[in-house]
Specification:
By secondary structure, the protein is of the alpha/beta class. The chain has an 8-stranded mixed sheet with strand order 3-2-1-4-9-6-10-8, sandwiched between helices. The two termini are 12 Å apart.
């Protein structure tokens, strides 16, 4: 359950940190001590991409200092991914899903089993480019205790950027969404949230979680100074299937998080916007849109059972963050924690 925290909107960094780690009554000295003990876990979920995972784990060995742990979840792998990790990377913690559960379920499992305060989330084909990434990551979380999560520039093949507004040259700013292939999370905040909805299977858990962070009074920051290389393997990535997952889960997120009566308009807008996108991809995409509509309808019951709407002020500001960043950032950065009933 997401609880309605009681914390002043302009609380000091130490007060935010004390509240976040579950010791709101402790002294500031204890908060400062907890900050200095931050440690980093790296989590990776993978499915039948042995060679990509090997490359990523090899790159992680080059980091100095090393993360405290690297956890890999093999999601129903039928190749020899598991044997490769056990044979070549003895220090990795290896979890197995005997059947395919999806990346969302797997990441939730990894976050709950991680041992460290900070969890660096990577894909099996993404890795940090900066050798001192871990030490600089700790510094970021110490400097910004109000940040639940940092996202980083995602540099793809031939130097192409995943987003032109999220480059190493961009200014740091708040974001409404991020990518789990290039992000670091404060685990204590995740455990106090509803977390990733496992029934999403793949896609859209990131925007949904970012919204939860803002509703809890924290922020999600893009940080340009640390870079992630992402090779974007074609294996296990089918464009139409990914679109259907994303569209369905975006609608489900609205049903779970948007307050009534605004949820009616927002849900219709989500369906229309995704259909418009499918049409822009061609007739073959548009004619298959009803596939995810029926899938979404079948899961409405789960969404209602997990419904935890946030206030409309938070939801609207989060929704507009990409288009009206300056105004929305002011509202989100200074809004007290709140959850609508």
């Amino acid at each position: 359950m997401v609880s309605a925290w009681s914390l002043p909107s302009r609380a000091s960094p130490n007060a935010l940190l004390r509240f976040m780690i579950g010791h709101p009554s402790e002294s500031e000295d204890i908060a400062d001590s907890a900050t200095s003990k931050l440690a980093v876990s790296v989590m990776i979920t993978t499915r039948n991409r042995r060679d990509e995972l090997r490359c990523t784990l090899t790159k992680l060995r080059e980091l100095d200092p090393q993360p405290a742990e690297v956890i890999v979840c093999a999601d129903g792998c039928t190749d020899d991914t598991v044997a490769m990790v056990e044979r070549e990377f003895h220090s990795c913690r290896l979890l197995r899903n005997e059947s395919v559960q999806g990346s969302v379920f797997s990441r939730d499992r990894l976050l709950r089993l991680a041992k460290c305060d900070i969890v660096l989330s990577l894909d099996d084909d993404s890795y940090p480019l900066d050798q001192d990434f871990i030490s600089r990551l700790k510094d970021l979380f110490e400097k910004y205790p109000e940040a639940a999560l940092f996202s980083f520039p995602e540099i793809r093949d031939d130097g192409e950027l995943a987003h032109v507004t999220k480059s190493p040259q961009s200014a740091a700013h708040l974001v409404s969404a991020y990518a789990n292939c290039a992000a670091a999370m404060r685990r204590a905040v995740y455990l106090r949230s509803a977390g990733f909805p496992g029934f999403f299977v793949h896609m859209y858990e990131e925007p949904d979680y970012a919204l939860q962070c803002y509703a809890l009074g924290f922020v999600v920051r893009f940080e340009p100074s640390l870079r992630i290389r992402h090779h974007v393997s074609a294996a296990q990535r089918e464009p139409i299937r990914r679109h259907h997952f994303n569209a369905r889960n975006e609608l489900w997120s609205a049903v779970m998080r948007c307050p009534f009566p605004q949820v009616i308009v927002v849900a219709l807008f989500r369906v229309w916007r995704q259909f418009r996108y499918a049409c822009s991809e061609g007739f073959g995409w548009a004619i298959r849109e009803p596939m995810w509509w029926f899938s979404a309808l079948a899961g409405v019951g789960k969404c209602l059972a997990n419904r935890q709407p946030v206030s409309w002020k938070i939801y609207y500001s989060w929704m507009r963050l990409a288009r009206q960043p300056e105004q929305s950032q002011r509202l989100l950065a200074h809004s007290p924690p709140q959850v609508a009933l």
